[in-house]
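Title: Comparing notes on inverse folding

I've been comparing how different people in this forum approach sequence design from structure. To keep things fair, I'm posting one structure and asking everyone to reply with a full sequence. Here's the target:
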């Protein structure tokens, strides 16, 4: 189906056929959901071994009794040494630069933004003292990053994503003309939602931004999908090495968690940064908490006693996820491979497939799908303030539903894309 070369008669004919098909589907009273990127039950089962793993032995290798406040080497705010080692393996950074926190990397990101906003990092001016502090937001992106900025009244500037990461020319231009830019959100590997992994050139240019930006500028490097490869492992170029080479190490804050490794929302989260940044972060957190849940940290450290165990564990996730991604991609390819109805990336890992409809169709697609019993992420959710200027992007999350349900949901999605596109063209 190619809409741009169709005659009006053809379009009207298609609209009639598609509407009839759609009405029939609506009678099936489906109730399917491909909204959030949650692990499926069989993925969660892979971590059942966490339960009871301590077996009465609550002491970490360094002697810390994880049931109590504090750690052997101080207050324990930076987490157990063995948990920090796990975070260091995931983020490929030195253990001394890692703080192992509670259950959520998003919480750590929120605290990091608060630290920059209220107090400033590493002796820099707090962002709240600037006239108009703003974050650069590669779009489409992760809605919850944008919510943090929105809640704190930090402005957001859209930057387009490309196949190699965010558009670096656009970023450099924005920073040069506006010293109010004090941060950027990055999901550098299997980006949420496009699935893109940043190239070497992108990583190096990002690491160089601090040379032209406000001294308080920070890169929020949310490596949520650092080890979530579906096929062979893709190496993300290291931002730490690039920033050290460019003398900009203080501009980088890296995050990760085991939310999509063990238990979503009940794992361990990590932040990695320079000594000066970690000191600022710990100062803020010190007033808020005595320390993280070390019992859970120890459970995770025992479960992944070696990095190879973690890698094997992630391969099991990949085996479960692969057929689901294949289902989504093959349905899209056979429906739209030779059409002008949409574009999408073919991710090699992560949790999402990002689909762009023709301009002005995404809201209608989501509504049509909802009325047919298939819940999709709201159109616009992948943009700051929920506003997709072209109304095109829809994030598909294949992980949670069973394969048969996903297959049905995708058939409905495809029908809705066709119907919304034809109707839009007829307007
Ligand atoms: N960052 C990204 C890019 C995500 O996609 C998600 C979850 O979907 C998170 C962070 C949340 O991670 P956590 O559960 O560690 O807060």
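Reply #1:
Here's my take.
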């Amino acid at each position: 189906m190619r809409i741009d070369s169709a005659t009006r008669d053809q379009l009207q004919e298609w609209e009639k056929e598609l509407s009839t098909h759609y009405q029939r589907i609506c009678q099936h009273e489906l109730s399917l959901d491909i909204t959030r990127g949650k692990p499926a039950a069989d993925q969660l089962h892979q971590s059942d071994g966490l339960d009871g793993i301590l077996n009465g032995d609550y002491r970490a290798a360094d002697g810390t009794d994880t049931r109590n406040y504090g750690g052997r080497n101080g207050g324990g705010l930076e987490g157990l040494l063995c948990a920090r080692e796990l975070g260091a393996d995931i983020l490929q950074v030195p253990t001394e630069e890692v703080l192992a926190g509670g259950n959520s990397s998003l919480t750590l990101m929120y605290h990091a933004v608060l630290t920059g906003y209220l107090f400033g990092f590493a002796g820099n001016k707090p962002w709240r003292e600037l006239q108009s502090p703003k974050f650069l937001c590669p779009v489409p992106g992760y809605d919850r990053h944008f919510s943090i900025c929105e809640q704190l009244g930090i402005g957001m500037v859209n930057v387009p994503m490309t196949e190699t990461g965010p558009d670096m020319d656009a970023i450099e231009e924005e920073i040069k003309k506006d010293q109010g830019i004090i941060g950027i959100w990055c999901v550098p590997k299997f980006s949420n939602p496009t699935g893109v992994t940043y190239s070497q050139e992108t990583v190096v240019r990002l690491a160089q931004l601090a040379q032209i930006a406000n001294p308080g500028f920070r890169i929020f490097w949310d490596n949520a999908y650092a080890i979530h490869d579906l096929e062979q492992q893709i190496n993300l170029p290291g931002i730490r090495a690039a920033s050290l080479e460019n003398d900009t190490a203080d501009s980088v804050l890296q995050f990760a968690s085991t939310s999509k490794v063990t238990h979503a929302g009940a794992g361990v989260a990590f932040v990695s940064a320079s000594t000066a940044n970690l000191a600022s972060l710990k100062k803020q957190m010190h007033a808020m908490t005595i320390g993280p849940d070390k019992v859970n940290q120890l459970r995770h450290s025992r479960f992944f006693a070696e990095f190879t165990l973690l890698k094997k564990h992630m391969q099991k996730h990949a085996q479960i996820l692969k057929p689901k991604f294949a289902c989504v991609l093959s349905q899209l390819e056979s429906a739209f491979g030779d059409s002008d109805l949409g574009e999408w990336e073919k991710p090699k890992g992560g949790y999402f497939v990002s689909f762009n409809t023709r301009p002005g169709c995404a809201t209608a697609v989501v509504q049509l799908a909802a009325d047919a019993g298939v819940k999709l992420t709201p159109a616009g959710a992948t943009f700051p303030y929920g506003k997709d200027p072209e109304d095109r992007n829809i994030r598909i999350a294949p992980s949670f539903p069973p394969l048969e349900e996903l297959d049905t949901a995708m058939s409905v999605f495809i029908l809705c894309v066709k119907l919304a596109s034809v109707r839009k063209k007829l307007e």
